[in-house]
Amino acid sequence: LGGRVLAFSAGASTSSGMDIYAYDASQNHVEPLVEDAGDDIEPVWSPISRRTLAYTKVVDDIGQLWVTRFSETGEASSTQLTEYGGSGPQWLPDGSGLVYEADGQIWTVDVASQLARPLLVNGEPVIGNRPVVLPLQP
Q: Is residue 109 within 8 Å of 97, Cβ to Cβ?
């Protein structure tokens, strides 16, 4: 996973679901990163750790957010971050958490504590989908 590596979802050759693959331009090579039951989609690399990938795993039509960390030898360690749904993960600029959509609302989840909470404005949930996070310039 050295250098610049593109992560993408594609139909799995061994199952009917989607898996996440990596394309390494410097090696001109494609290899599987995440191959599990269900559909693994919407991969996004952490802005602070080149070996940490967030994505949506869909099983029985329910999406949950997961993070997979890769060791220097390529061993993967995966953690489910959400319990009540989620899709479209976007990293916060500091890499501490993700912004995502769940049931038409915008949520955040802290990666370390796995604490998920809705984004609120004046005590009301923010309704929307497909959030995008951009770093703010001072």
A: yes
3-state secondary structure 6-66: EEEEEECCCCCCEEEEEEECCCCEEEEEECCCCEEEEEEECCCCCCEEEEEEEECCEEEEE
The whole-number pLDDT of residue 7 equals: 83
56, 75 contact by CB (below 8 A):
no
Distance (Å, whole) CA 120 – CA 105: 10
Gap between the Cα atoms of 6 and 23, Å rounded: 5
Which pLDDT score is estimated for 10?
84
Q: What is the mean pLDDT of residues 20-48?
A: 88
